[in-house]
Design brief:
This protein is of the alpha+beta class and 147 residues long. The chain has 4 helices and 6 strands, in the order ααβααβββββ. Helix content is 31%, strand content 18%. α2 crosses α4. The radius of gyration is 19 Å and the shape is globular.
Length: 147
């Protein structure tokens, strides 16, 4: 459908909404493989670990795009380890009604595994006029597999 309009920045709202919804719900084979990998993993995985597990199935840029989309869709969450490495983990206890990531992440100092400990929810109190958008609690030590 072509619209004639003097304003070159005119956007048809009905098409914009359709494109936005289509982009959000789009499933690709790469997205399916990455989400399955993260769902089945007991530990959080880094981008390079995901790339290694996929064994050349898709390139690094595609993995980053899929990870960004899965975060945007609240399917996974991002964890920064004590070494500054970004890892990704699937949401297990979240629902469409209640989505939260306020749990502890355990980072093993020996094997570098990062595990979500979802039954422990840390609490803290901030001064007035602070608004929290994201919480990232990482506890380091030795995991049960390395003791």
């Amino acid at each position: 459908m072509q619209l004639s309009c003097k304003n070159k920045f005119y956007i048809c709202k009905c098409n914009f909404v359709a494109i936005k919804n289509m982009k959000k719900s789009r499933n690709t084979l790469a997205k399916t493989k990455i989400s399955d990998l993260l769902t089945q993993s007991k530990n959080a995985l880094s981008h390079s670990e995901i790339h290694e597990f996929l064994d050349g199935f898709c390139d690094r840029v595609t993995i980053y795009r899929v990870l960004d989309r899965l975060i945007e869709e609240d399917f996974i969450h991002k964890i920064v380890t004590i070494d500054g490495v970004v890892k990704y983990a699937a949401c297990h206890d979240c629902s469409t009604v209640k989505h939260h990531h306020n749990h502890i992440h355990f980072n093993c100092e020996q094997c570098s595994a990062v595990t979500c400990i979802e039954d422990v929810e840390p609490s803290f109190k901030l001064p007035e006029r602070y608004k929290v958008h994201n919480v990232n609690f990482t506890v380091s030590g030795i995991c049960p597999n390395c003791i």
